[in-house]
Design brief:
The complex is a heterodimer of chains A (111) and B (114). Chain A is mainly β. Chain A is built from no helices and eleven strands. In chain A, the strands form three sheets. A five-stranded mixed β-sheet of chain A has the order 2-11-10-5-6, with no helix packed on it. In chain A, strands 3-9-8-7 form a four-stranded antiparallel β-sheet, with no helix packed on it. In chain A, strands 1-4 form a two-stranded antiparallel sheet. With 114 residues, chain B is mainly beta. Chain B is built from no helices and ten strands. In chain B, strands 2, 4, 5, 8, 9 and 10 form a six-stranded mixed β-sheet that branches. In chain B, strands 1-3-7-6 form a four-stranded antiparallel β-sheet, with no helix packed on it. The chains are: A mainly beta (111), B mainly beta (114). The interface between A and B is medium-sized, with 20 and 22 residues.
Chain lengths: 111, 114
């Protein structure tokens, strides 16, 4: 099966709604965990990074890795139109920095 | 500072021709990655270089694809005898080894095989 599993998209929600995107990964992966965001016709960019059980926060997004169940869910309490994008979960797979990107989840925020 | 740069930004080629795509990583980054993104799809890992170690070629889809990295900096991805299914955006990323691991992407090269 897939080594990184993300919420199946598209996820459509209105402005100011709360967003949660799930990500689970193969437990043998490293403790470095990333979320990337890709806006339309742009390259992926780093949204946030975490390690161990450290909660991180960036641009209003939060992610709390839970090592016990190999999950790294992304949350935002109130989305904006500009949050429409594809979100990729990407855990590290080795000690050299290779990342395993999930399939991505498209998020569409409506007015 | 300068980010990852890629050239050309767009490439149109005829089926059967060879193409070379170039990537200039962020200065000082020891790791360099190539990905492919077909239209509407996710990121497909192709190959990565880490310092002086042998490259991880596990994602290359066929022997028509190859890549090299000269002097630990610039990398070239070569596709021989291009096919229509090679049409995609080819993305390069770099990262610094050690404690960071975050990859920074270039703008990509959009390859169209006619």
């Amino acid at each position: 099966g897939d080594s990184v599993t993300q919420t199946e998209g598209p996820v459509t929600l209105p402005e100011r709604a709360a967003l949660t995107l799930n990500c689970t990964y193969q437990s043998s992966y490293s403790t470095f965990l990333f979320w990337y965001v890709q806006y339309l016709n742009k390259e992926p960019e780093l949204l946030l990074k975490s390690s161990e059980n450290q909660e991180t926060d960036s641009r209003g997004f939060q992610a709390s890795p839970i090592k016990s169940d190999s999950s790294f869910h992304l949350e935002k309490p109130s989305v904006q139109l500009s949050d429409s994008a594809v979100y990729y979960c990407a855990p590290g797979t080795d000690s050299w920095g290779k990342l395993q990107f999930g399939a991505g989840t498209q998020v569409v925020v409506t007015p | 500072g300068a980010g990852v740069s890629q050239s050309p930004s767009n490439k149109v080629t005829e089926k059967g021709k060879d193409v070379e795509l170039r990537c200039d990583p962020i200065s000082g980054h020891t790791a360099l990655y190539w990905y492919r993104q077909s239209l509407g799809q996710g990121l497909e890992f192709l190959i990565y270089f880490q310092g002086n170690s042998a490259p991880d070629k596990s994602g290359l889809p066929s022997d028509r694809f190859s890549a090299e990295r000269t002097g630990g900096s610039v990398s070239t991805l070569t596709i021989q005898r291009t096919q229509q299914e090679d049409s995609a955006v080819y993305l390069c990323a770099s990262s610094s080894s050690g404690t960071s691991y975050e990859q920074y992407f270039g703008p990509g090269t959009r390859l169209t095989v006619t």
